Amino acid sequence: MSFKISLVKMAINWTPKMMVMWVANIILKGIAELSDYSFDLDARKVYVQTTLYGEIDPIEVWLDGFAIISEEKSKYLILEQGTSNKPWLTNIFSKIAGKPWKIPAMPQFAAHIDFIAELLKAENAPEQLD
Predict the structure, then answer these.
(1) Dist. CA 76–CA 71, nearest whole Å
(2) 128 in any annotated domain
(3) In a domain? residue 83
(4) Cα distance between residue 36 and residue 92, in whole Å
(5) What is the 3-state secondary structure (H, E, C) of 18-45?
(6) Which end of the chain is more exposed for a tag (fewer CB within 10 A), N or C?
(7) Number of domains in the chain
(8) What percent of the chain has pLDDT over 90?
(9) Residue 130 lies in a domain
(10) What is the per-residue pLDDT across 71-126, written as a single tens digit (0 to 9) for each?
(11) CA torsion sign, 1 to 100 to 112 to 110?
(12) Do 68 and 120 contact (CB within 8 A), yes or no?
Protein backbone atom coordinates (compact mmCIF):
# COMPACT_ATOMS: atom_id res chain seq x y z
CA MET A 1 0.00 0.00 0.00
CA SER A 2 1.39 3.38 -0.98
CA PHE A 3 2.00 6.19 1.48
CA LYS A 4 -0.63 8.29 -0.29
CA ILE A 5 -3.29 5.58 0.14
CA SER A 6 -2.38 5.14 3.81
CA LEU A 7 -2.67 8.88 4.35
CA VAL A 8 -6.09 9.06 2.68
CA LYS A 9 -7.37 6.09 4.72
CA MET A 10 -6.21 7.82 7.89
CA ALA A 11 -7.92 11.07 6.84
CA ILE A 12 -11.17 9.20 6.13
CA ASN A 13 -11.06 7.52 9.54
CA TRP A 14 -10.23 10.75 11.38
CA THR A 15 -12.79 13.00 9.66
CA PRO A 16 -15.49 13.88 12.22
CA LYS A 17 -18.85 12.27 11.49
CA MET A 18 -20.74 15.54 12.03
CA MET A 19 -18.55 17.31 9.46
CA VAL A 20 -19.29 14.66 6.82
CA MET A 21 -23.02 14.84 7.58
CA TRP A 22 -22.99 18.66 7.46
CA VAL A 23 -21.27 18.75 4.05
CA ALA A 24 -23.46 15.93 2.68
CA ASN A 25 -26.62 17.74 3.77
CA ILE A 26 -25.48 20.96 2.09
CA ILE A 27 -24.91 19.03 -1.15
CA LEU A 28 -28.19 17.06 -0.82
CA LYS A 29 -30.36 20.06 0.17
CA GLY A 30 -33.78 19.74 -1.44
CA ILE A 31 -33.13 16.08 -2.34
CA ALA A 32 -32.48 14.20 0.89
CA GLU A 33 -31.21 14.58 4.44
CA LEU A 34 -28.46 12.32 5.74
CA SER A 35 -29.28 11.48 9.36
CA ASP A 36 -26.70 8.78 10.09
CA TYR A 37 -23.88 6.88 8.43
CA SER A 38 -20.88 4.71 9.14
CA PHE A 39 -18.08 3.89 6.75
CA ASP A 40 -15.43 1.25 7.43
CA LEU A 41 -13.01 1.19 4.53
CA ASP A 42 -10.95 -1.70 5.90
CA ALA A 43 -13.97 -3.97 6.52
CA ARG A 44 -15.66 -2.65 3.34
CA LYS A 45 -18.93 -1.85 5.12
CA VAL A 46 -21.20 1.16 4.73
CA TYR A 47 -24.38 2.12 6.56
CA VAL A 48 -26.47 5.12 5.49
CA GLN A 49 -29.72 6.47 6.89
CA THR A 50 -31.33 9.20 4.84
CA THR A 51 -34.76 10.70 4.38
CA LEU A 52 -35.77 11.74 0.90
CA TYR A 53 -37.16 15.26 0.57
CA GLY A 54 -40.93 15.24 1.19
CA GLU A 55 -40.90 11.75 2.73
CA ILE A 56 -41.47 10.86 6.37
CA ASP A 57 -39.81 7.45 6.74
CA PRO A 58 -36.03 7.20 6.42
CA ILE A 59 -34.30 4.78 4.09
CA GLU A 60 -31.57 2.66 5.64
CA VAL A 61 -28.94 0.97 3.48
CA TRP A 62 -26.23 -1.52 4.45
CA LEU A 63 -23.51 -2.28 1.90
CA ASP A 64 -21.07 -5.08 2.57
CA GLY A 65 -18.02 -5.99 0.53
CA PHE A 66 -17.48 -3.36 -2.16
CA ALA A 67 -14.39 -3.01 -4.33
CA ILE A 68 -13.02 -1.75 -7.61
CA ILE A 69 -11.40 -4.35 -9.83
CA SER A 70 -8.91 -3.30 -12.51
CA GLU A 71 -8.61 -5.40 -15.64
CA GLU A 72 -6.35 -4.16 -18.44
CA LYS A 73 -7.61 -0.63 -19.15
CA SER A 74 -11.06 -1.11 -17.61
CA LYS A 75 -12.27 -0.71 -14.05
CA TYR A 76 -15.27 -2.45 -12.49
CA LEU A 77 -17.26 -1.76 -9.33
CA ILE A 78 -18.46 -4.84 -7.50
CA LEU A 79 -20.77 -5.09 -4.49
CA GLU A 80 -20.98 -8.35 -2.57
CA GLN A 81 -24.17 -7.60 -0.65
CA GLY A 82 -26.61 -4.78 -0.09
CA THR A 83 -29.74 -4.65 2.06
CA SER A 84 -32.25 -2.01 3.04
CA ASN A 85 -35.26 -1.46 5.24
CA LYS A 86 -37.16 -0.93 1.97
CA PRO A 87 -37.96 -4.26 0.25
CA TRP A 88 -37.82 -2.74 -3.24
CA LEU A 89 -34.27 -1.50 -2.62
CA THR A 90 -33.17 -4.86 -1.20
CA ASN A 91 -34.56 -6.47 -4.38
CA ILE A 92 -32.48 -4.11 -6.52
CA PHE A 93 -29.36 -4.97 -4.51
CA SER A 94 -30.03 -8.69 -4.93
CA LYS A 95 -30.06 -8.25 -8.72
CA ILE A 96 -26.77 -6.33 -8.86
CA ALA A 97 -24.80 -8.00 -6.04
CA GLY A 98 -21.82 -10.02 -7.17
CA LYS A 99 -21.89 -8.62 -10.70
CA PRO A 100 -19.13 -6.34 -11.95
CA TRP A 101 -20.31 -2.94 -13.21
CA LYS A 102 -17.98 -1.26 -15.68
CA ILE A 103 -16.92 2.23 -14.69
CA PRO A 104 -17.04 4.43 -17.80
CA ALA A 105 -13.66 5.74 -18.94
CA MET A 106 -13.57 9.52 -18.60
CA PRO A 107 -10.17 10.91 -19.61
CA GLN A 108 -10.59 14.07 -17.52
CA PHE A 109 -10.99 11.92 -14.37
CA ALA A 110 -8.51 9.14 -15.23
CA ALA A 111 -6.00 10.04 -12.50
CA HIS A 112 -8.76 10.28 -9.89
CA ILE A 113 -10.33 6.98 -10.96
CA ASP A 114 -6.93 5.26 -10.81
CA PHE A 115 -6.38 6.59 -7.29
CA ILE A 116 -9.85 5.54 -6.11
CA ALA A 117 -9.33 2.13 -7.73
CA GLU A 118 -6.13 1.72 -5.72
CA LEU A 119 -7.92 2.86 -2.55
CA LEU A 120 -10.81 0.41 -3.08
CA LYS A 121 -8.76 -2.39 -4.65
CA ALA A 122 -10.29 -5.84 -4.15
CA GLU A 123 -8.39 -8.05 -1.72
CA ASN A 124 -9.11 -11.20 -3.77
CA ALA A 125 -10.06 -10.19 -7.29
CA PRO A 126 -12.04 -12.71 -9.35
CA GLU A 127 -10.13 -14.53 -12.08
CA GLN A 128 -12.21 -13.21 -14.95
CA LEU A 129 -14.89 -10.55 -15.36
CA ASP A 130 -17.88 -10.90 -17.65
Answers:
(1) 8
(2) no
(3) yes
(4) 22
(5) HHHHHHHHHHCCCCEEEEEEEEECCCCE
(6) C
(7) 1
(8) 70
(9) no
(10) 888 999 999 999 999 999 999 999 999 999 999 988 898 888 889 999 999 876 55
(11) positive
(12) yes
